[in-house]
Amino acid sequence: NTDVNLAGTRLPKSADPLVARGRCWFLKSDYQRVIDDFSAAIRLDGRLVDLYRQRGMAWQAMGQFEKALGDYHEALFHNPGSVEAYLQRGSLWLSKKETDKALADFTQALQLEPMSLVALSSRATVWMAKGDATKAVEDCSAALKLDPRSLSVLRLRAAAHQLAKAYELALADWNAVLAIEPKSLDARLGRGKTWLEIGEHDKAIEDLTVVISQDTKSADAFEARAKAWFKKGDQEKANADYAAALRLTNEAPKSKPQ
Question: Is the dihedral of CA 15, 21, 26, 29 positive or negative?
């Protein structure tokens, strides 16, 4: 940041050094300094309207959600065509469980940029939160046409298929994830749960045991394996896994409401 600081000294009336330094602070996750520099830059040059969006990201990273929303609103007031601002405001609405507002922002982003993989996958996440697996699958499938190897979208579509009880399709997506990333524990867990749903208890136990062997704190894996043992009639192993799942769940830190 030394050169940026010197530039700021030489050109006190220019916003450029402040913007450059603010971006450096962003890379260092020093969000208060990002806000300070971007605020000063906006005061120097009111044409830098995208800084409202970028400052909003800093507020959001600090947990100052109302201030972040205010900046996203301001960014869109000055530039209604900003896909990035719609995406960032939508993600904030989603984190606040304001699914209708998130859906509106992601849909607007797609109207502006129909081939946006981020907007498609983000809207699919909203559909999942609203329990609409069919629409989630539609958006995931459209996103996968843009990037067939997107692991996050494959995972999301697998979960959507599972929600819709389309278990064979869910298996196909979990297999696709594992073909790309063979060590993925979350895909093994997802596939294990899918095997469980279709009564393939031995295959479920195999996948879930792999997860547990590498992540001994996975309460989900213990609980799912307990169900598989129970279905196979092994009450002793089922009880042991249920006990482990309960212990891990009780030990897990409770998340704070936003």
Answer: negative
